[in-house]
Amino acid sequence: MSKNLTTRAEDYSKWYNELVVKADLAENSGVRGCMVIKPYGYAIWEKMQAELDRMFKETGHSNAYFPLFVPKSMFEAEEKNAEGFAKECAIVTHYRLKNDPDKAGKLMVDPNAKLEEELIVRPTSEAIIWSTYKSWVQSYRDLPLLINQWANVVRWEMRTRLFLRTAEFLWQEGHTAHATKAEAIEESEKMMNVYANFVENFMAIPVIKGLKTESERFAGAEETYCIEALMQDGKALQAGTSHFLGQNFAKAFDVKFANVEGKLEHVWGTSWGVSTRLMGALVMTHSDDQGLVLPPNLAPIQVVIVPIHRTDEQLVEISENVNTLVSQLRKRGISVKFDDRVTHKPGFKFNEYELKGVPVRIAIGPNDLANGTYEVARRDNLTKEVVGKDVIVDYISDLLEQIQHNLFDRALNYRNTHITEVNSFDEFKEVLEGKGGFISAHWDGTAETEEKIKELTKATIRCIPLDQKNEDGVCVFSGAKSSGRVLFAKAY
Fold first, then answer.
1. 383-388 and 373-378: which strand pairing?
2. What was the pLDDT predicted at 97?
3. Closest to 18 in 3D by CA, of 29, 4, 32, 36
4. Which of 324, 366, 320 is nearest to 346 (CA)?
5. Do residues 278 and 47 lie in contact, with contact meaning Cβ atoms separated by under 8 Å?
6. Cα angle vertex 182, ends 176, 188, to 5°?
7. 48 by DSSP, 3-state: which?
8. What is the per-residue pLDDT across 399-450, written as a single tens digit (0 to 9) for each?
9. Could you tell me where the DSSP H helices lie in 288-424?
10. Of all helices (H) and strands (E), which one includes residue 462?
11. How far is it, in rounded angstroms, from Cα 145 to Cα 56?
């Protein structure tokens, strides 16, 4: 199997696009800006879903489902949210087609089937969900309301890339209502930490927790908490966000509750979400010029076993040996595939599973059977070991843990060596165009400076780190006083 991948050094963007397609993760569809997620890619997403869903339920949340369509008047109820998403909205205006009298076999919009009120195809679900919460919440006894939904959303992006930015994508969105401001802020921070836990421990991607600046906040939020990751090309990627909505949506949709004293108050809200964009982060953080590199905790196939044989008799003998090993590994909760296809040669299979990022590959031939050994290859560093039959199960179990930790440590080292403190705008531009990564710089706190830096360099403030130190200084652009550093970067 020939990979023929463009290398990262040649063209990182082209490498990414080729890899997503050739590794059978996804492909462009017949609908502009939309993608088909293929079975292998969807299997990774399913593992992400399963882990996140478990985490959500462990923190008290329940799943529900809300409509895809939002009446335009309802969407407009929270002004900032409506304005923030207006340019990305797809709108349904008619509900029927009819035959075109001038063109046989063609259809046209039926002008008599115009909707009384236009429907927005959800770009996010705050409006439809908060309009529903109005009837769900009457008393403090109904709070907190902790709801999540797994859904698709549509944002009419003009420039799209598989997983990273598509007109339709899959995600989860949590929407919660609380009796007090403190409870809602605690929820927002808790879910940011849930995301950080998942991304670091399952995706093996280190993140920085922080707050978005006012201009980068979610439309309609009073505060946006985020986790920011760094890709191999030195660009940042927002890996998850959690929003403290204050009472903005509660007031827009009149969601009130009677407190303990019987007084009516508006509830306090949050929303939070991650999407299939995480698939892009997974590809770009760990993969190499040979193909995908998947962390074992999310790999659909953790171990693949490839038989090396010349005759059918040898394959039968190898299969009898391998079936026992497969059973032993599965008892440890390890996902295993025995690829005994006779239609493809071992070399083709080696290339295929290397391209698909399977963490561990085991090869076994007649000599291995005779010696009581297996050849074990690890995908993360492309090394091989010969391992005895009597210790193979423990060896593989330990190896998967090692690979998971190694991938995180490798990404952490890259991230940490690509956070650069600068103290002048010339230094800022030099690092941005040369080294890349996160730039730690003083900022005067004004939207004007933030916008000017973005206009001149295409770098944005990724976050105000939660562990930001109080440090008096001067803004790298304006020279005005600053009390701490923020992180800038070019971003996806």
1. antiparallel
2. 96
3. 4
4. 366
5. no
6. 45
7. helix
8. 999 999 999 999 999 999 999 999 999 999 999 999 999 999 999 999 999 9
9. 312-331, 346-355, 366-371, 392-416
10. strand 460-465
11. 13
Place of tokens 């403290």: 244
Q: Is the dihedral of CA 182, 185, 187, 189 positive or negative?
A: negative
What is the reported pTM? 0.96
Is residue 1 very low, low, confident or very high in pLDDT (cuts 50, 70, 90)?
Answer: low
Is the separation of the CB atoms in 219 and 84 below 8 Å?
yes
Q: State both tokens at 308.
A: 């090396």
SS3 call for 5:
coil
Neighbours of 42 (CB within 10 A): 18
Q: Residue 451 in contact with residue 432, Cβ under 8 Å?
A: no
Cβ proximity of 267 and 177 under 8 Å: yes
Residue-by-residue DSSP string for 219-267: TT-SEEEEEEEE-TTS-EEEEEEEEEEETHHHHHTT-EEE-TTS-EEE-
Residue 319's CB: how many other CB atoms inside 10 A?
16
Distances (CA, A) of 352 to 150, 287, 306, 468: 32, 14, 11, 45
**Tokens linked to 228:** 């920011």
Say if residue 207 is exposed, middle or buried (CB neighbours under 10 Å; 0-12, 13-18, 19+). Answer: buried
Q: Which residues of 283-302 are buried (b: 16+ CB within 10 A; e: fewer)?
A: bbbbbbebbbbbbbbbbbbb
Q: Say whether pLDDT at 461 is over 90.
A: yes
DSSP state of 201: H
